[in-house]
């Protein structure tokens, strides 16, 4: 089994809901997003899946979040857009785009700052 990772980012505004403290107020982050996938087999080029494909599919998805107010978007209308919930949303949304017989999204890690991140995997 091979494990591959790409790293990208998006910028957005949010506020935590049902939270008491300054993070309940509108503020923003440059979230760094790490996508880890597994691949069972390599193609003739020796690739599990092309990093270009991983990055472009991830960026297409992140484009729907980029420079948005996350709380107003469908995935976060009823759940707080915490890093945990963002990582879970990206895990399943990206899995729909990338998972196949060979490739599986294994983990999404979302860094809210250089010192704090949340990951989701099954
Ligand atoms: N488990 C989580 N905890 C917190 C999350 C989260 O998504 N998951 N999010 C926040 C807020 O988004 C907040 O913006 C982060 O605040 P904070 O950790 O205080 O970040 P700072 O950069 O301001 O760090 P300081 O150490 O306080 O300067 C909060 N918690
Ligand atoms: Zn925040």
Automatic annotation (TrEMBL):
The lineage of its organism: Bacteria, Pseudomonadati, Thermodesulfobacteriota, Desulfuromonadia, Geobacterales. It comes from Geoanaerobacter pelophilus. InterPro entries: 6-PTP_synth/QueD (IPR007115), 6-PTP_synth/QueD_sf (IPR038418). GO terms for molecular function: 6-carboxytetrahydropterin synthase activity; metal ion binding. Belongs to the PTPS family. QueD subfamily. Its cofactor is Zn(2+). It is an enzyme of class 4 (lyase). Pathway: Purine metabolism; 7-cyano-7-deazaguanine biosynthesis. It catalyses: 7,8-dihydroneopterin 3'-triphosphate + H2O = 6-carboxy-5,6,7,8-tetrahydropterin + triphosphate + acetaldehyde + 2 H(+). The keyword Lyase applies. Zn(2+) binds at residues 14, 27, 29. It holds the Pfam family PTPS. Binds 1 zinc ion per subunit. The keyword Zinc applies. GO terms for biological process: tRNA queuosine(34) biosynthetic process. Keywords: Lyase, Metal-binding, Queuosine biosynthesis, Zinc. This is 6-carboxy-5,6,7,8-tetrahydropterin synthase. The gene is queD. Its EC number is 4.-.-.-.
